[in-house]
């Protein structure tokens, strides 16, 4: 009986953490509508609609000084304004701050708040591949993977094998997080003040535009990547050039530093292979999926001459 009650409780809690795609989109649409009204009432051209939405939702789970630096802040009265609109209209727009796993039409799950947190960092940094975009998205989650294997022993290959057991499976770097990291820059690129996030997201998932997400992510974030070998090299260099990730590594004992890690230096010798393992697992996954798509396209192109030859022969005969 106790086991049954515990199982029921776990299922109930899990249900609370998930939200349906249609519910989330309806609430998101209302949220953006209210924010448009807020900007109009304030008569301010300096308020960015995209920033307000992404930052408002991000603050539901990601707060603190580091996040204020990475993603900025919202006006103090905005939360009260949205709550008031919900009460007036009988809507639930404020719940967008609480949604974690959203079930997509593809039956994948995505971390809803994390998706907007990544977009917030990219939008606030004004670039798809700047320091903040790395920290809040793929770079921060690669660091999480490094933490997952930090205390493991072995050579590079052995550490990579261990990292693969955590990648998109365990720790703080699960599949819902990773899909958010990949889709965030793609969705943000489609957004402007004349479009609604809800419409963009509905189209992206309902029309199966996400099936080419890896290629689109690479094009936006690492446009010079062409081969698996280059993936490792460029992603390794980008990760290690990120000053905020260096600070995170320092604060977690992976990198040397001074003045509370405001000044950082090299990765400690005992963690050099661990860092490579985490980065290589992420970069190899991206490379393999990217090359697979390109190989399929190449295979199709190679078949064209044969098809033409068969057509010509059929005409002659």
What does this 3D model show about the protein?
It is a single chain. The chain has 317 residues and is mostly helical. It has one domain (2-316). The chain is 67% helix and 6% strand. The chain has 15 helices and five strands. It has helices at residues 2-17, 21-42, 49-58, 65-71, 78-89, 112-125, 131-136, 138-149, 156-166, 175-189, 197-206, 213-221, 228-240, 243-251, 272-316; strands at residues 18-20, 101-103, 109-111, 255-258, 263-267. The strands form two sheets. A three-stranded mixed sheet has the order 1-2-3. The chain has a two-stranded antiparallel sheet with strand order 4-5. Helix 6 crosses helix 10 (175-189). The N and C termini lie far apart (78 Å). The model is unreliable at 1-16 and 292-315 (pLDDT under 50).
Order of helices and strands: HEHHHHEEHHHHHHHHHEEH
The shape is globular
In whole angstroms, how far apart are the ends? 78 Å
- Rounded radius of gyration (Å): 23 Å
Please report the total strand number as a whole number: 5
What does the main sheet amount to?
A: 3 strands, mixed
Instruction: Note the total helix count.
Output: 15
Q: How would you summarize this macromolecular structure in one to three sentences?
A:
The chain is mainly α and 317 residues long.
Key attributes of the depicted protein:
single chain; about 325 residues; mainly alpha; three-stranded mixed beta sheet; two-stranded antiparallel sheet; about 5% strand; disordered N terminus
């Amino acid at each position: 009986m106790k086991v049954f009650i515990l199982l029921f409780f776990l299922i109930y809690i899990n249900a609370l953490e998930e939200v349906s795609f249609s519910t989330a989109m309806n609430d998101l649409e209302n949220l953006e509508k209210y924010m448009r009204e807020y900007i109009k009432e304030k008569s301010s051209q300096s308020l960015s609609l995209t920033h307000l939405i992404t930052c408002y939702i991000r603050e539901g789970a990601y707060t603190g000084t580091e996040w204020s630096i990475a993603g900025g802040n919202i006006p103090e009265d905005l939360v009260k304004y949205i709550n008031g609109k919900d009460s007036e209209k009988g809507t639930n727009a404020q719940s967008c701050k609480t949604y974690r796993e959203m079930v997509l039409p593809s039956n994948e799950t995505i971390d809803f708040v994390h998706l907007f947190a990544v977009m917030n960092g990219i939008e606030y940094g004004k670039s798809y591949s700047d320091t903040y975009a790395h920290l809040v998205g793929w770079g921060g989650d690669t660091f999480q993977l490094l933490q997952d294997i930090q205390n493991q022993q072995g050579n590079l290959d052995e550490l990579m094998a261990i990292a693969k057991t955590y990648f998109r499976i365990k720790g703080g770097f699960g599949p819902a997080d990773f899909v958010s990291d990949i889709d965030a820059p793609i969705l943000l690129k489609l957004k402007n003040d004349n479009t609604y996030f809800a419409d963009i997201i509905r189209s992206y998932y309902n029309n199966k535009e996400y099936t080419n997400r890896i290629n689109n992510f690479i094009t936006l974030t690492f446009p010079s990547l062409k081969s698996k070998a280059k993936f490792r090299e460029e992603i390794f260099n980008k990760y290690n050039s990120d000053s905020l990730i260096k600070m995170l590594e320092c604060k977690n004992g992976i990198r040397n530093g001074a003045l509370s890690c405001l000044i950082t230096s090299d990765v400690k010798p005992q963690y050099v292979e661990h860092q490579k393992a985490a980065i290589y697992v992420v970069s190899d996954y991206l490379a393999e999926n990217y090359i697979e798509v390109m190989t399929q396209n190449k295979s199709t192109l190679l078949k064209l001459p044969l098809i033409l030859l068969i057509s010509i022969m059929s005409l002659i005969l």
